[in-house]
Amino acid sequence: MLALLLCVSQIPSAQAKTIHATQKDSVWEVERQAESGWQRGGTAFIVTHGTRQYVVTCKHVVEGTETVVRDGKIMDVPYKAYRVKQGATVREIEFKSMPDQDIAAAKVSGFKKTARISLIQPMIGDKVYALGFPASEFLTISEGIVNRYATFEGRVMIGHSADVYYGNSGGPLFDERGEVVGVNSMMHREAKHLYWSEIAGSKFRKFLEGL
User: pLDDT by residue (tens digit) across 122-131?
Assistant: First the structure.
């Protein structure tokens, strides 16, 4: 059973507890197969869109390389495979990357718990909740608010204060209704408690439909 941990030193709100309780089973660890075996790589989540299920994570989680030494030479080698894991349950996944966002996904079936994609974009000041596996076997939840929207490399992203760290990449950002509004992607290098998520908007839904 997954434990509830907080990424921030505060008492969780009643809504944070509700979202954790209702959505925790839709959030999975991502593992990648390295030369030495399987290792943690990030977070993924399962969503239902239309009548189909999809597993979603960040592109940078499943397009990485590991540095190895072969015949005395140092080289970067792509990981051999990727899988999602929740407790003792494991599913190997072949992800496809979204061209213009830091998102990768695959069409799947048979998952018992899935999240829903919000059709409403959160406004500045709205509360949001990040779930994921920040370098840990335990699922964490953090609570914050939307601070701003900003453009990075031609794409608009959600800036918020729900703490995310290494390992949270690819995890869902939920609104107060418990629906997915973003995919947690990166931390701000200069500002504390400012994190960035890819928007789970119309382009994201169209990408899923094309898988």
Answer: 999 999 999 9
The length of the chain, given as a count of residues: 211
| DSSP-derived pairing of the beta strands 5-6 and 140-152 | parallel
Amino acid present at 207: F
Whole-number Å distance between alpha carbons of 205 and 121:
13
When pLDDT is cut at 50, 70 and 90, the band that residue 152 belongs to is: confident
Residue 110 φ/ψ region, left for φ over 0, alpha for ψ in the -120 to 50 degree band, beta for the rest: left
Q: How far apart are CA 143 and CA 141, in angstroms?
A: 7
Q: Which pair of structure tokens corresponds to residue 132?
A: 């994921």
**Residue position matching structure tokens 């003792």:** 88
CA–CA distance from 203 to each of 103, 112, 132, 180, 199 (Å)?
A: 11, 26, 23, 14, 9
Total-model pTM: 0.90
